Amino acid sequence: MGVPRVYCECEVCEEARTTGVNRRYRSSVFVESDKGEFFIDAGPDFRHQMEMLKKRKLRTMLVTHPHFDHIGGLPEWADACRWLGEKGELYAPQEVLDAIQAQFPWLRNHIDLKPVDLENGLDLAGYHIHSWKVNHGKNGYSYAYHLEKDGYTWVYCSDSINLNEQEQKPLYGLDLLILGTSFYYEKALFESRSVYDMMEAQELLTKVKPKQTIFTHMSHDVDLRHRYMLSPGITLAYTGLTHTLG
User: Average pLDDT, whole number, for the chain?
Assistant: First the structure.
């Protein structure tokens, strides 16, 4: 839901409304290199994120899964493409495209929907990108993206929990893992949950051993002013965070 939540007056949401350390948009990544640029996911905060980047147009996007917090900004992107007279390119596995098409049947008028080849991957902005399906708990499924360029490997996995051995396999030995962790410690019943908490995520990290990790997709349970007990090499994402790849 982002931070602050519209109904909430907790300490974190109130701080987000004032000094803004904890003000968080829905999770998204903008990737740029000497060979191009692309977004990963466009939630309902897409317009604000584009304004923050001072960008007026976007050609290419990857989408992880068809939940509103990851695709709610697609109509605004389509409207921008319409006014600019330039068709966007949206890449995702076919079942994700099918779900997006069902929700926004007119999107194809302004954006080309391009299926990701799950066996061979695709190439964008100099990155070779491989995608695979991951467990999203009660919320079904998502897809993660493994990206490699000039020997540097990183993964964007915003929505997952309880990954099995096969789902964990592409995470081993990364230079960077961007992983969704909604809470530091989530008290809800495990079967009702859909994203790792930070305690569980750190157990995963001891197995897959990335050189660096960024936790994203955080709820208003997480206060960036607080010093959490985290393993070395972990950074908590914040609005506007930039990271050099390579």
Answer: 97
Q: Decide: residue 75, CB within 10 A, 0-12 exposed, 13-18 middle, 19+ buried.
A: middle
Token representation of residue 236: 């908590």
Q: How far apart are CA 172 and CA 56, in angstroms?
A: 37
Q: Report residue 163 CA to chain centroid gap.
A: 17
Residue 194: what residue type?
S
**pTM beyond 0.85:** yes
Segment 31-34 long-range contacts (CB within 8 Å, at least 24 positions apart): 31/125, 31/127, 31/147, 31/245, 32/125, 33/125, 33/126, 33/127, 33/149, 33/245, 34/126
The answer to whether residues 231 and 205 touch, using CB atoms and an 8 Å cutoff, is yes
List beta partners, residue 197. Answer: 183
Per residue in 20-48, pLDDT tens?
A: 999 999 999 999 999 999 999 999 999 99
| Dist CA 171 CA 210 (whole Å) | 8
